[in-house]
Write a structure and sequence with these properties.
AA-Vitamin_Transporters; transmembrane; globular; mainly alpha
Length: 252
């Protein structure tokens, strides 16, 4: 189906699940509520499309690790201290270890993953704003519906040109439910209860899971440099979490 086809189906299914359940009151939304919803709808598309296109080029583990720089940036920028600057340097070293400029480096894939990272950072901030301004999950449902409408023309064209088989469609539907509808609602609910920087730090396990799944399920191979880069980026998040706990007088 290609990255665009998969993302399109994800947005369709998420909208098909959330809109009938939530039934957002669109006419009741004010201009102050509309603008973060519209931006969130755009971010849904750029975040997922950038990630899937990156996975196609550089593999699951590296794509998710680089994308994770988005929430890491939110965590570090929300508390600008010398220690957090050191964490940023550690994460930067991880990026260099993963990218390793050489003739075979897929700069396009790395760039797509970094674009997904910027979108993920925006996703966290916008979700926090939407959750504060719009009750329930009406804002998320509305943004999902708008995002699905944006993908409707290109998705319909792709399916007409290259119709997928039934099993592929079922997998895409599963991705729509498990990777869009459920996490969109879960993220919004979590961001109402925890600060955005804490949410970003708690996502630090994602690169590790992605790398392991890539190796075990997709037969992707990672060298020592790639594993070192993943470890450095995850370590930066752990250090940031320890710093926050100590600053608040808690235990790391």
């Amino acid at each position: 189906m290609g990255p665009i086809g998969v993302v399109a189906v994800r947005q369709y299914i998420a909208a098909a699940v959330l809109l009938p359940l939530v039934r957002p009151r669109l006419r009741a939304l004010t201009r102050r509520q509309w603008w973060p919803v519209l931006l969130l709808a755009l971010v849904f598309g750029t975040m997922n499309l950038g990630l899937y296109a990156a996975i196609e080029r550089i593999g699951l583990g590296l794509a998710v690790t680089l994308e994770f720089l988005g929430p890491l940036s939110v965590a570090l920028l929300s508390a600008r201290t010398a220690f957090n600057a050191c964490c940023a340097v550690v994460a930067g070293a991880g990026v260099v270890a993963i990218a390793r400029p050489e003739a075979s480096t897929d700069y396009a894939g790395i760039g797509l993953a970094l674009a997904a990272a910027a979108s993920w950072a925006a996703y966290i901030v916008l979700n926090k704003t939407v959750g504060a301004r719009i009750p329930g999950i009406e804002g998320t449902a509305t943004a999902t519906g708008i995002s699905a409408m944006l993908f409707l023309p290109v998705g319909a064209f792709l399916f007409l040109v290259r119709p997928p088989d039934g099993f592929t469609v079922l997998c895409a539907i599963g991705a729509g439910v498990l990777a869009s509808a459920v996490p969109y609602v879960a993220d919004l609910t979590a961001l109402r209860r925890v600060p955005a920087n804490v949410f970003g730090i708690l996502m630090s396990i994602n690169p590790v899971f992605a790398a392991l799944i890539g190796v075990l399920a997709l037969q992707e191979s990672l060298g020592a440099a790639e594993w070192t880069g993943i470890a450095l980026i995850v370590t930066a998040n752990v250090l940031a979490l320890v710093l926050r706990d100590r600053a608040e007088g808690g235990k790391p």
